[in-house]
Amino acid sequence: MSSELIVFLVLSLVAIATALGMLFSQNAVYSALFLVLNFVTVAVFYLLLGAPFIAMSQITVYAGAIMVLFLFVIMLLGAENLAPSKNLPWQKPLARLLSVILAVEAIYLLFSRARTDLAVTAPDASLNTMDSLRDMAMSLFNQYLLPFEVTSILLLVAMVGAIVLTRQEKGGK
Amino acid sequence: MVPVDYYIALSAILFTIGTLGVLSRRNPLIIFMSIELMLNAANLAFVAFASVYQTFSGQIFVFFVIAVAAAEVAVGLALIVEIFKTRKNINIDEMNSLKG
Amino acid sequence: MHLSETVNTGFYFLAPWLVLAPVIGLLINAIFGKNFSERAVGTVASLASGAAFVVSALLAYSVAINHGHAVSVPFAEWIHIGDLRLDWTFRVDSLSTTMMLVVSGVGTLIHIYAIGYMHEDVRFKHEEGRFTRFFIFLNLFIAAMMILVSGDSYLMLFVGWEGVGLSSFLLIGFWYEMDTLARPSWANSNAAKKAFITNRVGDFGFLMAGFLMFWHLGSFQFDEVFAVAPAIAHDSPWVIVAITLFMLVGVAGKSAQIPLYIWLPDAMAGPTPVSALIHAATMVTAGVYLVTRSAPLYSLVPEAQYIVAMVGAGTALFAATIAVGQYDIKKVLAYSTISQLGFMVAAVGMGAYVAGMFHLITHAFFKALLFLSAGSVILGLERGHHAHAHHAHHDEKPKGKHKKDEHGQHGGHDDHGEVFDPGDMRNMGGLRKTMPVTFWLYMIGTLALAGIFPFAGFWSKDEILLDAKLHFTSVYWQLSIAAFFTAFYMGRQVWMVFFGEARTDAAKHAEESPKVMTVPLMVLAALSVAGGALNLPFKGFHQLGHWLEYTLGKVEFPPFDLGVALISTGLALSAILISWLLYGRNPLKEGQIDPLKKPLGFVFTGMENKWFVDEGYGVLILTPFKKASQFLADVIDWRFWHDFVHDTVIAGTYNWLSDVVLSRYADQKGIDTFFNSWGDFTKWLSGNVRRIQNGFVRSYALSVLLGVVLILGYLIFK
Fold first, then answer.
1. Which of C24, C51, C352, C408 has the least C-beta neighbours within 10 A?
2. What residues make up the domain containing A16?
């Protein structure tokens, strides 16, 4: 058992635990913090898989920007807690059952199908970090230039949309 | 050396947990976070496959997903704030005007 | 009957132009005729017909230089079904070229004559616009007649046969909305219908002959039919007898023989050039041509030949007696035509094909001449009538100029009181002085028809009589008596029309016809005089006979019999003498009854009324037919079929079915119930299912997850 595997197993336990913690926390603030932790472990996975740029993006954008935004809204609205609901008593057990089935199905599918046509070797650890970063940049600004630009427009639109949605009407209520 | 299968399995488990969160929680903020978790699970699968195939397309796709998720969160949270401002409540079970 | 080896020399390739030339002519006139002057229209039509004549002459020349080889000129594919190949092929041999020459030659002369005739005719009838139409029909006729005589199978012959029937119908009914005196009536169109329907009866015979021929002999093609006919005649002679006799029915229809001749006198309703061309010179001889063409069939069955000869002779005599009692100048000639056609049919029936064809040719000349001259007489009288009438009214004004204005104002010439009949011989008299050219031309035609030496009719009629004397004595006597009557009625006509004093003002002021009409007549007159030279009955001559031998095989030439010639000439001369005694010595006065009426009594009444044949047909066929139709229409169709079957049975059943069974039970009880229940079920179901739509987003998402799980499960267990 290599050290890398040990790291992976420990981190995956952490990831699953934080995900469940997010799921079961009564307080939304705790949920958000659990999720931040989860995102950080995922970023480590990215590093293990030889994707340092994505790992950095994950930490800055997700763990940093997005989750801060979440926390900000939670605290702004004071929506940390909600009273338990009487509606849909069968929703939760059914959802759990289906989720378990889904997990089983997904894992089964991945292991039965993926094994046949994937080279299930470990990712190439000898990937040169700087080279891969440069190559990815080349790929991003050549092959994927148009989606990249479209994404930037999307971000602009989202920004404008958020402003418009939350704007206080002048002389309004 | 970690087999890719393990990453995929982890991805599936995280995705399922995210699904469960969407289905069982009534706080829209937490539902939102669960969706983010599902996106992350998908991203993890992307990157794992990309490393197997030694291609950047998977990583670039994840990059785009992150960018789109940021946009989505900006708009989604704005909507939630707006809903809260009009209804003084964000319990998702209260929002059942689609009832037939 | 030499079938075509390849013959290189000659103009055979021109054969299709026999038909194409008149068709082009009629198309030009039909398309551009509106903008043409009358002269241009007439010229185009005459040139088209003349071109056909030139082609005929070149074809005849080609046959001559190739020693009578019959040549088939394929023109167009018509019907190809499996092995059956029916094509439009031209047959060029001595017989067909003879007919082509007669048809196109006489036809061209009549075209030219018609330019003058129709010019006036359309003006007397105030229908100037129809001038072009007349020449279109005339060219159509020439084209159809050419198809008839040039086809190399019975089928193409039948196509032409029907084509000429159509043109005949169109031309008889040319003035369809009036009668022969231009009074509004349907008399002319009825005459056209009579001709057409009577010909249908004949065509039925022809068709039956054709069916039998195809069934038993396996072909329509002349040579093929004639090749297998002897074997069939040996095995089952009744087939050939049936074919030839059915063909005789067709001949009787087209060539106006007993019992189907009745349409020809009525056909005189057509303009006179039509009477001359179609109903005297060419179309009506198609039957004679058919029998001659079918000579190899007829010669196999003497019984059929005998019947043909008897029909011909009977018609010759019967029609000649009717001609004696007629007053209309064209009716006399019409019955004369029937009678002369009887001569020809009798001749070909006896196997004297050369004599029959010879008489056909000479008859075409002198009968065309007579008809056209009669047309000239009628127009002369018409002119005299108009000129006189207007003279009386407008004495101070020059007459010719005002004819038209006068018609314009009064809308017709009926304003002169009683309708004047310019064709009635009782209205004529003394035209010898006012119409001298026509008189002399008419005299030549009369002498030729009467069979006076040395005119054409003498030679051809004599040859028929000679053959008859040698083969069928009874036919000989019938024909001789017919010849006597022929001379008599022609004498009567000439005395009544041209001699004595004018019996009406119109006759007094009759005017001679213009050159465009008289010059073609002079050509025809010359042919009537010299036509006999075609086939002089002396050793070393017989040119026509030898010419037709190419087609007909060996022909027997009986030596000239002075006795027969003398008897016929004597009969003719005595008949003319008798007619002079009755009509010439004491010319008919105005309003006087026919001098024959008193001595002959009811016999003359019979002649006058055509032996009441039309009435007989009326009683025997038409009345029962109408009664039967009435019965069928009123009782069978209306009362039984319509009232009972349709209204009561079908409509009643239908109503009952629809009202009681379908509407009340099937529809209301069955279908309605089913669909109402279906609707109720849907309502109930939707009322329950709507609860799923509970408005909770989480539960919707759960549905989505359920779908995902199911799909993944399907993928796994697939």
1. C408
2. 1-80
At residue C328, the 3 state secondary structure works out as strand
Q: Do B63 and A123 touch (CB under 8 A)?
A: no
The model's pLDDT over C624-651, given as tens digits with 9 standing for 90+, comes to 888 888 888 888 888 888 888 888 888 8
On whether the CB atoms of residues C508 and C502 are closer than 8 A, the answer is yes
CA–CA distance, B41 with B13 (Å, rounded to integer): 8
Shortest Cα distance from C699 to chain A (angstroms)?
A: 7
A95 to chain C, closest Cα gap in Å: 7
pLDDT band at C582, cuts 50/70/90?
confident
Of the candidates C156, C188, C178, the residue with the CA atom closest to the CA atom of residue C87? C156
**pLDDT on residue C603:** 76
- Put simply, whether C704 touches A (Cβ < 8 Å) is no
Predicted confidence (pLDDT) at residue A126 exceeds the cutoff of 50: no
CATH of the domain at B83: 1.10.287.3510
Contact check, Cβ <8 Å, C695/B99:
yes
Predicted confidence at residue B96, as pLDDT, reads: 67
Domain-embedded: residue B53: yes
B92 close contact with A: CB closer than 8 A: no
Give the CA angle between residues C168, C279, C104 to the nearest 5°.
85
In chain B, the number of structural domains is 1
Q: Which residues of C touch B95 (CB under 8 A)?
A: 695, 697
The pLDDT mean for chain B works out to: 85
Residue A90's alpha-carbon distances to A62, B98, C656, in angstroms, are 33, 20, 62
A168: in domain: no
Per-residue CA distances from A107 to A98, B6, B11 (Å): 14, 10, 9
Residue window 46-85, chain B: list those with CB within 8 Å of chain A. Answer: 47-52, 54, 56-57, 59-60, 62-64, 66-75, 77-82, 84
CB atoms within 10 A of CB C76: 8
Domain ranges within chain C, ordered by starting residue: 614-711
Chain B hits for C697, CB-CB cut-off 8 Å, are 92, 95-96, 98
Q: Please confirm whether the linkage preceding C599 is cis (ω < 30° from 0).
A: no
Q: Which residue on chain A is closest to C698 by alpha carbon?
A: A91
pLDDT at B7: 87
Mean predicted confidence (pLDDT) in C136-153: 92
- As for how many domains chain A has, the answer is 1
CATH label of the domain that carries residue A15: 1.20.120.1200
Contact A102 C698 (CB under 8 A): no
Q: Is residue C391 over pLDDT 90?
A: no
Residue C399: is its pLDDT beyond 60? no
In which domain, by residue range, is B16 found? 4-91
Interface list for chain B against chain C, based on CB atoms closer than 8 Å:
19, 22-24, 26, 92-93, 95-100
pLDDT of residue A113: 63
User: Are B99 and C693 in contact (CB < 8 Å)?
Assistant: yes
Q: What is the complex's ipTM, to 2 decimals?
A: 0.88
Say yes or no for a CB contact (<8 Å) between B44 and A42. yes
Distances (CA, A) of C89 to A131, C152, C308: 93, 6, 29
* Nearest-neighbour CA in chain A from C698: distance (Å): 8
| Residue to test with chain B: of C688, C696, C703, C712, most B Cβ within 10 A | C696
H or E element in which residue C87 lies: strand C84-92
For residue B41, which of A136, A110, A24 has the smallest C-alpha distance? Answer: A110
Q: Which chains share 3+ C-beta pairs under 8 angstroms with C?
A: A, B
Are C205 and C253 spatial neighbours (Cβ–Cβ below 8 Å)? Answer: yes
